[in-house]
Amino acid sequence: MRAYITRRLLLLIPTLLIVTIIVFCAVRFVPGSVIELMAAQIGEAENMEEAIQSIKHGLGLDVPIYVQYGRWLGGILTGNLGKSLWTGRSIGEEMLNRLPVSIELGILALITALLIALPIGIISAIRQDTATDYIGRSIAIFCISVPAFWLATLVVVYPSVWFGWTPAIQYIPILKDPVGNLKQFIIPAILMGMVMSGTTMRMTRTMMLEVLRQDYIRTAWAKGLKEGVVISRHALKNALIPVVTIVGMQLPILVGGAVIIETIFGLPGIGRYFVDALFQRDYPVISAINLVIATFVMLCNLAVDVTYAYLDPRVQYT
Amino acid sequence: MAQIELAPTFREERARSFWADLLIRLVREKPLGTVGGAIVLLLLLVGILANVLAPFGYNETYVGPRLAAPSPEHLLGCDQLGRDLLSRIIYGARVSTIVGLSVAGISVLISTFIGIICGYIGGKLDIIAQRFVDAWMCIPGLFLILTIMAVTGPGMVPVIVVLGIAYGIGQSRIVRSAVMGIKANTYLEAARAVGCSTGRILWKHVLPNVTAPIIVLFTITVGGAILTEATISFLGLGLPPPTPSWGGMLSEAGRRYMLMAPHLAVWPGLFLAIVVYGINMLGDAMRDLLDPRLRGGLGRYDVARKKLPK
After folding, report:
1. How many Å separate Cα A259 from the centre of its chain?
2. What is the pLDDT of residues A199-249, one digit of tens each?
């Protein structure tokens, strides 16, 4: 087991290196616009060229791209994610400040998703091809198809038109007012959870159906066990292992969904930071967020594989 | 005796073309998939005939009260600039159709190219290419697409190219595994034995045998592309106004007006949801009919229950 984890961790290094190249290059193919934008804010039209040169020099953009990449990578290896082009603030600190919002939203959404997905998925499977099953499957497909930003827009618009209720615009820190904070987070979290739950629901159903056809389930029935025992002790335990994988693989989707939800509900998380940076063409911030998230995804994938191997003794980790 | 009896049935089975056979099986075995197919067909028709069906132009402003509520003349009302919402939604179907089909086309071309070459040739080339694909897939799709869109700027062509490449690279994994699945087959060995060039083997022997997953991929990608385009247009980084994108119609800029005219918030999203639902249902049915391995589970669970043809 330890050898397996070590090997996987070592394999992360080349992948991460390629990620840094993709992330770095993605924003630097057209580097002109933001500099011109900044120069236009600072000075007169005559000195445009000069202003551009001085800004480029100040930001370290006047050297060849591989030198820039080297400096950037060097900074990251020493734990420095760089500074924002506009505010000059440290990106690492800003992300740390925003992390609690994103984590809270993510955990609440994950809980919602599982609360919706597991019961419906299980019932769908044990009542296969009945009306209950069809309703359950329709809910799952609805959750997959419905655009998150539309649902969120409806939630922002309609209650305000009908009852004059609007979601809080100002972020309420959890330490200041836990109840207000939870009130603020619960609706975005439910929306995110709903959108996430579709895939998990379908996976749960498929896995349950597969397990229910196994010999050991027939044996359990033959022993005269009650339905509840057969389902929960014998079927569910085996069926949930792949579901754990799916939930783990969905964490990146959770991060992506947060971009939309945080923007609409004005929550100052990482997703919101990312969108703001996109509009300001704040390239260092965009690269840094992409890199951090890619690393997070990689670690999630690794964690999923390790959990899988740990939960299911049939999997051989070589 | 048995052979003589079997032969004609076999020929009869093959006589129907692949697509006709698929269509018949879809209608017979997959009611939900048929509904999805009908929705997709409707989307295509509305998209193609948008200029005939739409009562007004998508950018034609209507003289009169802005944000007009639905009325017999403007069935779904008007938006903040006095444009007929129904017409914009109909033209939006055209935009979605163009984006969905072009993105799926580009992405399938890319994923097939990478997937077939990596899967068949393997070796060092595959190892290196797959590290790149790994890295690419580590960055969540929306982040990657938004990042590149921020650099290229909004527009129809950038949206299509960026989405096509982003999807194509990620999905090459699926084509690759399909190719690896058939790699050990005898017919490929036979082709090599008679001295076919690698190019000919890839084109004439490998490609025809992985069309099933490619068709499924294409269908699923159309839905994903339409939804993603709407999402990035919603954020203001996709199609620029006045292009009638369903996502763009729901964007930040319009939300202030939605509080005064809530009908603006309902329709574009509803049509988007219906279309994506239809494509997902069709994609699901296609996957079950063509390539159950893509299901994600360990196989098709209803095999045991399936009635065998007599």
Report:
1. 9
2. 888 888 888 888 888 888 888 889 888 888 888 888 888 888 777 777 877
Instruction: Please tell me the distance from the alpha carbon of residue B178 to that of residue A91, in angstroms, as a whole number.
Output: 42
Cβ(B108)–Cβ(B168) under 8 Å?
yes
B146·A16 Cβ contact <8 A: no
How far apart are the C-alpha atoms of B240 and B156, rounded to whole Å? 8
Q: Is the ipTM of this complex over 0.85?
A: no
- In B216-235, the residues whose Cβ lies within 8 Å of chain A are 223, 227, 230-231, 234-235
Maximal C-alpha separation, chain A: 90
Stated as kind and residue range, the H or E segment containing B222 is helix B211-235
β-bridge mates for residue A200, sequence order? none
**How far apart are the C-alpha atoms of A22 and A264, rounded to whole Å?**
29
Distance (Å) from the C-alpha of residue B222 to the closest C-alpha of chain A?
Answer: 13
What SS3 class is residue B199? helix
pLDDT in tens, A16-64: 899 888 888 887 765 556 666 666 666 555 666 677 777 777 666 777 7
Residue A25, chain B, CB below 8 Å: the answer is no
Are the beta carbons of A75 and A82 closer than 8 angstroms?
yes
Lowest mean pLDDT among A14-23, A269-278, A279-288, B287-296: B287-296
Among candidates A30, A153, A294 on the partner chain, residue whose Cβ is nearest the Cβ of B269: A153
Residue A157 CA: distances (Å) to CA of A24, A52, A272, B260 = 38, 44, 20, 9
Residue showing tokens 């006709």: B20
The tens digit of pLDDT for each residue in A153-190 reads: 888 888 777 777 766 667 777 777 777 778 788 888 89
Assign B203 to helix, strand or coil. Answer: helix
The rounded distance, in Å, linking the Cα atoms of A47 and A52 is 8
What global pTM score does this model have? 0.84
Amino acid B193 reads: A
